[in-house]
Amino acid sequence: MVHEAFEGFDIHHYMEVSSTNEEALDLLEKGISSETVIVANKQTEGRGRTGKSWISPEGNLYTSLIIDQAKDINRLTELTFVTAIAVGNAIQSSINSCNIQYKWPNDVLVDGKKISGILLEKKSNTNWLVIGIGININHAPLSTATCMGDYGVSVSNIDLLKELIINFNKVRKQWLSSGFYAIREMWLKRAFKLNEQISIKLADKLYEGIFANINENGRLVLQQKNGSLIYFDTGIL
Ligand code: BTN
């Protein structure tokens, strides 16, 4: 494992781990004193949202930011938007002209295909939050996915990670000083399927309607056929 300090984070770089989120949670068990980033070239048991697995061959970015949530005043939902924008900006800095979109709750798409996924996990009773981020650089493991290589971009996982950290710090700072409003505006400008028909599956129940808005608390507002509104939280996990 290689150690490096960068932009306020202590970076731990591994060749292979089961999951960088798992590694981050294990590290929290032992105790840490500063914000830390785990990055691995490969994951053997990468995890995605809702219990899915995240296929993780060598060549993509797999990272987990361990951040001190005390600074972020418990606004977890807002933080998922902050992270998605930082990911979008980092990708945009490599692929100049591409159509980046944010898909609720926390996917980043390029030309309608998924290029990145985000998974937040928390160890209860601590202020530390783990933000797991996967970005497809050289491989798009599913047919619904794309990767930066499809756009002629070649970048190393560590260079992309550094770009991501710089952008994360920038967007987080803006959020902490000026609030969620501007973050929400940025996200909405590039929202996938805004004002279109969508369906959301929650606890095996399917909700259908128009994706009308993201409200001031970061909840998705779904307008049903009968005009009634339902609000969805991103939640953690
Ligand atoms: C999703 O879209 O379902 C979220 C995917 C999150 C994948 C990343 S890769 C790095 C970190 N470690 C994991 O095991 N998962 C996240």
Percent strand equals 25-35%
User: What hetero molecules are bound to the protein chains?
Assistant: biotin
Element pattern in H and E: EEHEEHEEEEHHEEEE
Strand order of the largest sheet: 1-2-3-4-8-7-6-5
Low-confidence stretches: none
Total strands: the figure is 12
Radius of gyration: 17 Å
Helical/strand content category: alpha+beta
What can be said about the biggest beta sheet? 8 strands, mixed
Q: How would you sum up the global shape?
A: globular
Number of helices: 4
Termini Cα gap:
27 Å
Please, what is the average pLDDT?
93
The share of residues in helices is: 25-40%
Explain the overall architecture.
It is a single chain. The chain has 237 residues and is an alpha+beta fold. It is 26% helix and 34% strand. It is built from 4 helices and 12 strands, in the order E-E-H-E-E-H-E-E-E-E-H-H-E-E-E-E. It has helices at 20-30, 76-94, 157-178, 181-189, and strands at residues 2-6, 9-17, 36-43, 61-68, 100-103, 107-110, 113-122, 128-135, 197-202, 205-214, 220-223, 229-232. The strands form 2 sheets. The protein has an 8-stranded mixed beta sheet with strand order 1-2-3-4-8-7-6-5, with helices on both faces. The longest helix has 22 residues, at 157-178. The model has no long low-confidence stretch (mean pLDDT 93). Biotin (BTN) binds next to helix 1, strand 4, strand 7 and strand 8.
